[in-house]
Amino acid sequence: MKHLLTMADLQPEEIHTLIDEAEGFSKGAIWTPLRQAFVSNLFFEPSTRTKCSFEVAERKLGLEVIQFEASASSALKGETLYDTVRTLESIGVDAVIIRHPADQYYDELIEGCRIPILNGGDGCGHHPTQSLLDLMTIRQEFGRFAGLKVAIVGDIRHSRVAHSNAVALKKLGAEVVFSGPQEWFDENTNYEPIDRAVKTADVVMLLRIQHERHERHSGISKEDYHREYGLTLEREKLMKPGSIIMHPAPVNRDVEIASILVESDRSRIFKQMENGVYVRMAVLKRALAHKIGGRYHEAFAEK
Ligand code: CP
């Protein structure tokens, strides 16, 4: 079963293959299933990018998208996630994309469910498709991972993006350092002070403060956070030539990053979102191709 649950599931060669396929899709290649195929996006937490870009990816591949609104589903009557997925499977859905507030929600699904599960984010755990689109963006920029230094800055402990990227980038040979408030670090976090991290990194990846996952308010004001840990206009001037700014978004402008930098020359934030569609097409193809077969069409060269 071609689930995609964490970046630990993927070997470096598989990561490169998925990015290669995503690049192909970005240039106009297309894959279509051999029969009518159904997918459903089960989002039990808010999402703009992941949910919408999965849906665009699904429609580009000619998949039928079965609408599911958690707030109007029988989950409200107490139906478990397991029974929800088994139900969709029984009525003919071929794969599900799930975002859920529980860490490793998928543990209770993978034994009994017979369709691929693509993790759209589990609690503070993992966000593999975000990591893949981040890796695609980095590879487009530098052509490699080995020897690069990536500084991940912010609320590390509560960030599934930080967890997935740390696993994947280290596996691919990059150096990963973390910066931000140390109270939000995991054990053994490879800490660097913000000014040194910003000066020496090839990629500065900012994270949103995940207030919704905090047990209590940190007490730090937006202004103080920006000054102490944010990418301010002054810190951006310290960045190396050729280095880039990334952020998974949603962005809190003027908190983790100065508003004007979001759309600056160094920023790849909207490129990341664009790449998200192509990476999700590649992940959907990986999940469905072995089960239902498909046809791959190379992009036609422009005359
Ligand atoms: N980056 C990301 O996962 O954004 P959404 O929460 O909007 O899906």
TrEMBL record:
Q: Where are the transmembrane segments?
A: none
GO biological process terms on file: 'de novo' pyrimidine nucleobase biosynthetic process; 'de novo' UMP biosynthetic process; amino acid metabolic process
A GO molecular-function descriptor: aspartate carbamoyltransferase activity
Q: Which reaction does it catalyse?
A: carbamoyl phosphate + L-aspartate = N-carbamoyl-L-aspartate + phosphate + H(+)
Query: Which SUPFAM superfamilies does this entry report, sorted A to Z?
Result: Aspartate/ornithine carbamoyltransferase
Q: Where does L-aspartate bind?
A: K77, R160, R208
Which InterPro entries would you find in this protein's record?
A: Asp/Orn_carbamoyltranf_P-bd, Asp/Orn_carbamoylTrfase, Asp/Orn_carbamoylTrfase_sf, Asp_carbamoyltransf, Asp_carbamoyltransf_Asp/Orn-bd
Query: Which residues of the sequence carry a binding annotation for carbamoyl phosphate?
Result: R49, T50, R99, H127, Q130, A249, P250
Its subunit composition reads: Heterododecamer (2C3:3R2) of six catalytic PyrB chains organized as two trimers (C3), and six regulatory PyrI chains organized as three dimers (R2).
- The name of this protein is Aspartate carbamoyltransferase
